Amino acid sequence: MITEIAPAPERTVPAPARPRRGRRAWDEVPRWQIYLPLSVYLLFTLVPFYWILLFALRPAGSTSLVPWPMTFDHFRKVWTERSFGTYFANSVYVGLATLVLTTLVALAGGYALARFDFRLKRGFMLALLCSQFVPGALLLVPLFQIFAKLSMINSLGSVVLAETVFQLPLSMILISGFIRNVPYSLEEAAWVDGCNRLTAFRIVVLPLLRPGLIAVGSFAFVHAWNHFLFALMFLSDQSKQTIPVGLNTLMSADSVDLGALAAGGIVAAVPVVIVFAFIQKWLITGFSAGAVKG
Amino acid sequence: MKSSIRSNRRAATAVALGSVLALAATGCGDDGSGGAGDKGGEGSGKGTITFWDNNGGVRTDIWKQVIADFEKKNPGIKVKYVGIPAAGAQSKYDTAIQGGGLPDVGGVGTAMLAEVAVQGALEPLDGRLRKSSLNGKLSQNLLDVSKAAGGGDTLYQVPTSANNGTLWYRTDLFKKAGLDAPTTWSKFYEAADKLTDKGRNRFGFTIRGGEGAIAPALDAVYGQTGITSFWNGDRTTVNDPKNVAALEKYVALYKKDTPSADVNNDFTKMVAQWDSGTIGMLSHNLGSYQDHLKALGKDRFRGIPNPTLDDGTRVQVSNPVDGLSLFKSSKNKAAAWKFIEFAVSAAENSKFNESAGQVPANTDAAKDAWIQQAEPTKLAAEALNGADTKIVQLPYYLPDWNTISKADNEPNFQKLLLGKMSAKEFLDTLADQLNKAQADWQKNH
């Protein structure tokens, strides 16, 4: 028996796109033309950080341009004398609670926006967008009165709630974009296999939303971590204040301890930098997915 | 088995999330009662009172000491201290006036006194002060500033401390250049020129061009012309031709004898660059004394009151006065007033101002030894209380003063420095706004 082997189909490799006239291909660009501008930009960005490190690590009164002899006195001072340990713990609590609440509510709201049609849906989306144009300072008095009625003044919960409410519109819009990108047929297949809507969402959709959840969660965390106004207004006890308020107390009306301020700034910045270093891969994916396809 | 693990996990997740929600939603809070409309009451003179420090942070330790002393002497009263960053104090008061949650006692500086008083939040204090042991013990100059800042006839603030415009200069650089101390305006301009060597990045002076630039500029202007009143009838003297000429001369220093970055200088940048560089003179106030001490050591600089005219006449604008106010909504005014009396008593006022580096309002405290040893404070106290000093009262009482002297005119001052506006245009604009604000204020008073 003769087995005829059919000739392999001829593979047609598309010709590489020819660079347009006047434009050089990426490989032809000399490396220095890429690295020089990037280095200048990096220098421009990093010099202020170096300056902060310098002030934080050199002794008070030193004018040296290198942090030598190095001292950690400013860090000791802000952490112990100026209660930054307490502020740090409070900020972690506010940041994480805002992250959890924002993500949960945005997931529920975003799912509804993505999967259901209801009356005034477009109007609701528009209202969400418009709410982004209202500065928080405008709502301070009504928010204060609401929290006062709920006996929540001077409680970290008031800050968490206020931060969550302000984060929700954007988070919901982003999450609804991510959910829309997940084919509905995947959920339908899960229903056929016996899942209810919630289980199908948890098993099928949720894992695919990871980049989006990381983007929204980190955005909520960083915003809550850095926000000064709500913590200043709704909290009075020193033991309940957060890092941004603590940083402001390092600047009096006419005197600033620059060493302590720089050390406090580093304490405030390091967690955010670490968080971003770990999540940047998903963050970029998440934001670009939501932005382009949403 | 698998399903049991899964359901346990689910339960744990639900409990964790529920806890977060519950914690976030409730927490231990209070109802923030006490807005501007509340009448409050005298109370029993015992119990807990709340004190807001409008310059929290740097002054927290010394206030806690004062509070500890007070609680030791008054065992029936507890003081709850709340330190508010200086930058957010005005907003915090404004929100509490509208929304509730005002303290019993609060630090209210003259710069914000009118705005708080005009909303009906403060208790008039003249009567209480007359019957108090403090009567006759407080600097009359400072009481006048406090009354003027509150709107004229009523005292809404018991002054605790005064600041004063101070010319800080580098004694080492002056000695090297063979210059006299810049005690007069002529010597000041001469030194600014001689100490400048742009090629070596050395400058005679650093000018405040950013946030907070207006008051120091007015101090320099009135100091040079010797005009002693801010108002001539209903019109301000700010755009008097003599003042225009003085301002032209002052801003001409920019870039000639100052760094060009000064156009964005707020006090933080200005003090930092003076402390770490080679600039001859800095015009700020007593508040930065400790920063200079830390950076330069005590032998390389001096702080003297702003220069005088050549004949020795000293004219200066009124500087913000710190003080304590009693809030109308307090339900325990008797205890709150006791705390104010105690905090401004000679011993406590002295202790507080020694730490803050300011001039005590209590005249007995102003005689204490530490003032004699801290030269800038001593000279400032002499200038403030000196019979020959003429103080031009800035209109802190105008509710629009903060807007006019900050948001409205700081950008114009930058234009003036950059040569995009003339001194006359700048002062005419300022004068128009002030005259209108004064007319409005007079209509309502």
UniProtKB/TrEMBL annotation, chain A:
GO terms for biological process: transmembrane transport. It is found in: Cell membrane. This is Transporter. It comes from the Bacteria. It comes from Streptomyces bungoensis. The keyword Membrane applies. One of its GO terms (cellular component) is plasma membrane. It is a multi-pass membrane protein. Coiled coil: none annotated. The keyword Transmembrane helix applies. The lineage of its organism: Bacteria, Bacillati, Actinomycetota, Actinomycetes, Kitasatosporales. The chain crosses the membrane at residues 34-57, 92-114, 126-147, 159-179, 200-225, 258-279. InterPro entries: BP-dep_ABC_trans_perm, MetI-like, MetI-like_sf. Keywords: Cell membrane, Membrane, Transmembrane, Transmembrane helix, Transport. Residues 88-279 form the ABC transmembrane type-1 domain. Pfam families: BPD_transp_1 (PF00528). Belongs to the binding-protein-dependent transport system permease family. Its main location: membrane.
TrEMBL record, chain B:
Keywords: Cell membrane, Lipoprotein, Membrane, Palmitate, Signal. InterPro entries: Bact_solute-bd_prot1, SBP. The keyword NAD does not apply. Pfam families: SBP_bac_1. The keyword Membrane applies. Transmembrane segments: none annotated. Residues 1-24 form the signal peptide. PANTHER family: ARABINOSE-BINDING PROTEIN-RELATED (PTHR43649), POLYGALACTURONAN_RHAMNOGALACTURONAN-BINDING PROTEIN YTCQ (PTHR43649:SF33). This is Sugar-binding protein.
